[in-house]
Design brief:
By secondary structure, the protein is mainly alpha-helical. It contains 4 helices and 2 strands. A two-stranded antiparallel ribbon has the order 1-2.
């Protein structure tokens, strides 16, 4: 959820990129979130097939690990390492 209470959409490609930039495996993200590797794989490949609370948990775990999600701003969504990582 955003600060305004709106649900934030996180495309599968953005989740994959965030995991990759951190050098984490799907298994590691699964352990961080308490979900299965299969669920992580689905979240990264099949838009709309995973519950929003699961997407939020994955995103939160990746943010905690040091990545920032960049929302759509005309140039497309993206990710970057948080400063100081």
């Amino acid at each position: 959820m955003s600060e305004s209470g709106q649900q934030i959409m996180t495309p599968p490609e953005q989740l994959r990129a965030a995991r990759a930039i951190l050098g984490l495996s799907q298994t590691q993200v699964a352990a961080l979130t308490g979900r299965t590797s299969k669920t992580i794989r689905r979240a990264e490949t099949e838009a709309g097939s995973v519950a929003q609370d699961t997407i939020a948990a994955i995103r939160a775990a990746l943010e905690q690990a040091g990545v920032e999600f960049i929302e759509e701003n005309g140039g497309g969504p993206g990710v970057r390492l948080r400063k100081g990582q």
